[in-house]
Structure prediction request, 427 residues.
Amino acid sequence: MPVDAAETRLLSWLSNRRLNETVRMNSLANKRILLGITGGIAAYKSAELARLLGKAGADVRVVMTPAATQFITPLTLQALTGNRVHTELLDAEAEAGMGHIELARWPDLVLIAPASADFLARVASGQADDLLSTLLLATRAPVALAPAMNQAMWLNAATHDNLRVLAARGMQIFGPAEGEQACGDTGPGRMLEPQQLAEKAAALFETGLLAGLRLVITAGPTREAIDPVRYISNHSSGKMGYALAAEAAAAGALVTLISGPVALPVPERVRRVDVVSAQQMLDASLAEAPGCDIFIGVAAVADYRPASVAAQKLKKTAQSLKLELVRNPDIISTIASLEQRPFTVGFAAETEDVDANGASKLQRKKLDLLFANHATSTFGSDAITASALWSDGRATLGPGNKSLVARQMLALIHAHYLSLIHTPVKS
Ligand code: CTP
Prediction:
């Protein structure tokens, strides 16, 4: 690999790391965090906490006690998380969307920050007199509490008894810190800083293989319109791309799936962008490329499209019909040729000379890695065997179902991605 290309990749990787703020927070990718805010002056810091959690890739939903809304508005939290903020236990509108029991089942972690002395007391005694305390009774997710209160309240034996009870029930206690307080006192009881809380939350999760990496995957066929009711397409089912997306999300990656028309549900924790034609798939891929660490082109892109799309349905007047086709753009080559290119992985479904044709595509399209397989045995099927090809090596993956082979592919992609970004940059 040319030295400057290696350097470009290394710099791009480093800047993506910086985007994630710290590598330590990668384990928050794809995690569902219910952020509970209770009434205390530190509630203003919860806005920054919500922002940091979201930036680290977590899906954040906020529940506020009525007292918390006196310190910070639900609108601020809604704007920062992109999700409706829940405040009332008996809110018909909220129950119609995500009811309180559904909300209790949703998170991977409930983080209460700030947790006031009053809230700790109510939870310790098992009360369920507002939405947040009710959720704590109903949830099976781990709970972390970030106490924040005046130092005298913190030092009071009642508070300590409550915390002992809560810790004995398995709740995590984050902080508090010591220092200057809003009321003018100095001592213990300050809420930890948002960055510290986010890091503690991240530490509660195991790190997946692809934690925090941003993956873009194309999948399925494209359709090229002939007229308003007809199109040219192929037999791709989208199963391989969808299996890769599901497995990558399970391994902690932030996955965007750019999908042609298929009959498959969106995998959990994957963001899907729906497209129809090759041109739309290219536009979506270019829009997602900035900040993408790994681009995987699994889509069976139609190589040609009709030179013009008839405005009205074509009538069968003539005995024969000639369609003029023009070449579609090559999506993966376009991505692999970008100046700030992601690690780029292609697929090749071949009907003959699988490895030889695959190897020439790897080179022609400037790919880092390519998985080649036999087209007829793959389309629509659940089982797969694939050749993994790279500039100076090959491996056979499978046979196995597409989920198993997807995991093997991701492990190989990750290993190559790491060795690529660790290529020493020579001067
Ligand atoms: N691909 C793409 N854009 C295209 C065609 C293909 O991005 N217009 C990508 C596919 O997603 C896949 C790889 O290129 O990752 C190889 O696809 P394939 O259809 O096998 O390659 P073609 O270039 O179309 O070669 P062939 O002449 O065999 O059709």
Notes: The first strand starts at residue 32 and ends at 37. The pocket of cytidine-5'-triphosphate is lined by residues 218, 278, 297, 299, 301, 303, 328, 330-332, 346-349, 361 (CB under 6 Å). DSSP finds 16 helices and 19 strands in the chain.
